[in-house]
Amino acid sequence: MTSTLRVEVLERLARDAAQRGDRAAVDARIxxxxxxxxxxxxxxQVDAELFALAHDGPAAMPLYAYFFLPSPxxxxxxxxxxxxxxxxxxxxxxLVGLQRSEPGQWAVAAGELDRALALGLPNPAFERNAARRxxxxxxxxxxxxxxxRAIAVLSGAGMTTPDKLLAKDWQDxxxxxxxxx
Length: 181
What we know:
By secondary structure, the protein is mainly α. It has two domains: about 1-75, no CATH class; about 90-180, Alpha Horseshoe (Serine Threonine Protein Phosphatase 5, Tetratricopeptide repeat). The chain has ten helices and no strands. It has helices at about 5-20, 25-35, 40-55, 60-70, 75-85, 90-100, 105-120, 125-140, 145-155, 160-180. The chain is globular. The mean pLDDT is about 95.
């Protein structure tokens, strides 16, 4: 059984435990998943779940529900709830930005991802993802200032070579757009 499959099973077991109201079991399953060697996208997901479990601010309930509980509310609504009750929590704005980019609400997504970066995120993997998606959303919503701020993050210290190359590509696109009539 691969680590990826183990993580999927552990996350499913965590959601089952959450439905039973067994928070200790949720915590145990997600920490067990976090100990496995997994790729960066899976790691970011597990890190997000760990953040939701550990968070004790006003957004704790909507974050927990977002990741673990079936809800009559959509994940977009749960993310928005988290951002409303804890407006200085960058992670909540990050989730709103991700949710809004899916249905193509580019201007809202760009604004939320930009705000998430400004407020701070749990680790560089979230910063990288917010900047990548923020650049795209900023471009699609014709907001070069937000694209430029995403470029600055992707060009920063600690970013990978592919991120820096992506930043250069976005920079070249902005320069081309500025020259176009």
